[in-house]
Amino acid sequence: MASPEPVKFLLVDDIPENLRALEALLKRDGLALYKARSGIEALELLLEHDFALALLDVQMPDMDGFELAEMMRGTGRTRRVPIIFVTAAATDEGRRFKGYEAGAVDFIYKPIDPLILKSKADVFFSIARQHEQLALQKNALATAAAELKGALDRLQAHTDNSPLAIVEFDPDMRLLGWSKGAERMFGWTAPEMIGHPLAELGWMPDSCIADLVTLFSASMADTSHQRGHDTVRCRARDGSMLDCEWYSSVLRRPDGTPVSLSVQILDITDRRRAEETQLLLIGELNHRVKNTLASVQAIATQTLRHTRNPDQFSDTFSGRIQALARAHGMLSDRTWQGADLMDLVHDQLRLGAVDPARLHASGPRVQLLPQPALRLALILHELATNALKYGAFSRPTGRVVLEWSVEGEQLQLRWQESGGPPVQAPLKRGFGSTLIDSSMKSDGGTSSVSFRSDGVVWDLAMKLDGPATPSAERTARAPATGGAVPSRGAQALDGCRILVVEDEALVALELIAVLEDAGATVCGPARTVEEALAMIEGENFHAALLDGNLHGKPVDALAAALTRRGIRFAFVSGYGRESLPAAFGHAPVIGKPFTPHQLVEIAGELARREENVVAFPAAASPR
């Protein structure tokens, strides 16, 4: 701790010997003595220093002690300096009165008694030290008060800005505190809540209050209890109910008696809803995955039962899986809220080789729920496939009109073919007809087919959960699909060398089989990023098919390496475009599952920049 500043006394006398005598008598540790031989010198010192005592000689030339005292009393800085007059004059009541009037606190007469002088000086020395201690304590208190105020301001700011509601109860469960967070969370202001018992606030259901009061009273009575956690359902001012977590702390006096109960309240309503939604989504996902697998199993079984050879099974089964996958993709893009009927028609007809001028689709805007949308997707696929194989789309002159309308809560669809080959009713019912009929019945609808001389007509009816969205009739033609599907013997990729990058063994086998059947030479498959980079740098090929990720790793580096070499590529992925490397948005995407037609068509576009494929040196290895 630093040593205190010395106490300062002022000695004023025109005779140097008197000053030396006073200095000798008063000298002590912690005392600084300043000497002046005139009133002018004394005033200069008084302007520079704070003195605890001034000893003034009464009789001095130019300015006597009384005059100096009068001037000291007229200045704010020196007004409160104690003055003791030192005089050799005999006792005179008039002079004594004059001295006290000038501000003296005492008189000392010459010859000076050392004991009296030291005794009087000690009093003012002690008073000065006490003043110093009081000043230090005052400063310390002011500092502590400022720090306390800062801490309280920070606490209040945290309380006001906290997402928690902070409330306080007395031992009788009467509300003592209600924070800004509580006002924001529940809607009531502090004046409306403070001072009222919990049971009178209307803040929570009556069924909760008794249990809560009992619990908190027990917490206050238990001296070992410090804090607790409870889940409480509270009412907001607007009448809504909030799920809240209450974190309570008992504040006690030193003797252990409770002062209050402080409660921090966290609104967990959104968290509870999110947890419930998560459980619902997990259950729904489980249900849909199993339903999808069951649908795939049924499609495989029924397709196998109605086909005569493996090639026919592969094409038919692949087409039906594609129809299901595209419908799933559309519903996923809309977070499984449903699908627009016109969008569903366009999406399904992209799978077939339909001339856009030969199909006319029209009807009001209709929003379908997920399950009816999936079933209608398969129905549209079956109708289009049959039209391509046996009906209107199998001849250049054929056309199809697809129209729908809404009557009440019933959706009516008509698929009408014309200009195709002569129509004859089949001798036995096929899987497509069975699928259409059973799908309609599962939605409480009906289906009927007419084999007219000018073409097949299907009339379908299904129940809607709600009316169609009011809008003008939507009319559109089928989207262009890029021409006829190449057969496996078409050798559409003859002379092309294509790199396959795919980590899933079965998918890689399918890619290689389709490409080789179309006449391509396949490099790969590369199953890791490192393996693919080595092949990109060390081998020659015309194009590449790149998986969306390899064992969970991104493929940005592979796309960049292919771009540097000027090799065109396509992503083969179950992800949508938004989940693939954004820097390579120009690359086409082949969605999984894919059809041989899609794969061969896009691979051919990538590989054949010119009419003839560039020949690479024979030294390059194909696999």
From TrEMBL:
<dbReference type="Pfam" id="PF08448">
    <property type="entry name" value="PAS_4"/>
</dbReference>
<keyword id="KW-0418">Kinase</keyword>
<keyword id="KW-0808">Transferase</keyword>
<dbReference type="InterPro" id="IPR013656">
    <property type="entry name" value="PAS_4"/>
</dbReference>
<feature type="modified residue" description="4-aspartylphosphate">
    <location>
        <position position="57"/>
    </location>
</feature>
<keyword id="KW-0067">ATP-binding</keyword>
<feature type="domain" description="PAS">
    <location>
        <begin position="151"/>
        <end position="195"/>
    </location>
</feature>
<dbReference type="InterPro" id="IPR001610">
    <property type="entry name" value="PAC"/>
</dbReference>
<dbReference type="GO" id="GO:0005524">
    <property type="term" value="F:ATP binding"/>
</dbReference>
<feature type="domain" description="Response regulatory">
    <location>
        <begin position="497"/>
        <end position="607"/>
    </location>
</feature>
<dbReference type="InterPro" id="IPR001789">
    <property type="entry name" value="Sig_transdc_resp-reg_receiver"/>
</dbReference>
<dbReference type="InterPro" id="IPR011102">
    <property type="entry name" value="Sig_transdc_His_kinase_HWE"/>
</dbReference>
<dbReference type="Pfam" id="PF07536">
    <property type="entry name" value="HWE_HK"/>
</dbReference>
<dbReference type="InterPro" id="IPR000014">
    <property type="entry name" value="PAS"/>
</dbReference>
<feature type="domain" description="Response regulatory">
    <location>
        <begin position="8"/>
        <end position="125"/>
    </location>
</feature>
<dbReference type="GO" id="GO:0004673">
    <property type="term" value="F:protein histidine kinase activity"/>
</dbReference>
<keyword id="KW-0547">Nucleotide-binding</keyword>
<dbReference type="GO" id="GO:0000160">
    <property type="term" value="P:phosphorelay signal transduction system"/>
</dbReference>
<keyword id="KW-0597">Phosphoprotein</keyword>
<dbReference type="InterPro" id="IPR035965">
    <property type="entry name" value="PAS-like_dom_sf"/>
</dbReference>
<dbReference type="Pfam" id="PF00072">
    <property type="entry name" value="Response_reg"/>
</dbReference>
<protein>
    <recommendedName>
        <fullName>Blue-light-activated histidine kinase</fullName>
        <ecNumber>2.7.13.3</ecNumber>
    </recommendedName>
</protein>
<dbReference type="InterPro" id="IPR036890">
    <property type="entry name" value="HATPase_C_sf"/>
</dbReference>
<dbReference type="InterPro" id="IPR011006">
    <property type="entry name" value="CheY-like_superfamily"/>
</dbReference>
<feature type="modified residue" description="4-aspartylphosphate">
    <location>
        <position position="547"/>
    </location>
</feature>
